[in-house]
Amino acid sequence: MATDVLVRTTEHCPSSSPNPVQSKGRLAPKHFRSVDWPTVHQAMKSLKPAEQRFITKHTVGMCGVGKFGKRWGLDSENRCPLCGLEEDHLHVPRCPSDRAKTQWQLLLQEVQEWFQSTTTATPIAQFLGALLRTIRTPAWCRMDG
Predict the structure, then answer these.
(1) What is the pLDDT of residues 74-88, one digit of tens each?
(2) Which stretches of sequence are listed as region Disordered (predicted)?
(3) pTM of the complete model
(4) Strand partners for 79
(5) Same domain, 3 and 21
(6) I want to staple 2 with a disulfide (CB 3.0 to 4.6 A). Which of 19, 56, 65, 142 is the partner?
(7) d(CA 60, CA 24)
(8) Are residues 110 and 131 in the same domain?
């Protein structure tokens, strides 16, 4: 599966060699080696194959959005139905339409309620809540080398 490729990549890819994850701009080189790939591998192995595929595709931006619907011949256009802008995996959580903003706020509230219902440690809930609130801001994932 995809995690096997990631684990093999980290084990066999010299630090000077371009790495597929790094070369696509998905993860800054300085952060790549700090990822606990064996734990990622273990977590992925605990999922069903369909869930592994979903996580892998979502991680690299291959989601069921307008961009890929058009590319795969499933849709005639790649525009967001809410705002009309090009719809890719980054557009979905950042859509400027009022409906999308409202839905995002409702989802954030549901996550906070879930944190409370599962007695998630307060510092963890606060950190994850703050991280989720930044997703609608394009600068949140800026690569800085």
Answers:
(1) 888 899 999 999 998
(2) 1-28
(3) 0.57
(4) 86
(5) yes
(6) 56
(7) 9
(8) yes
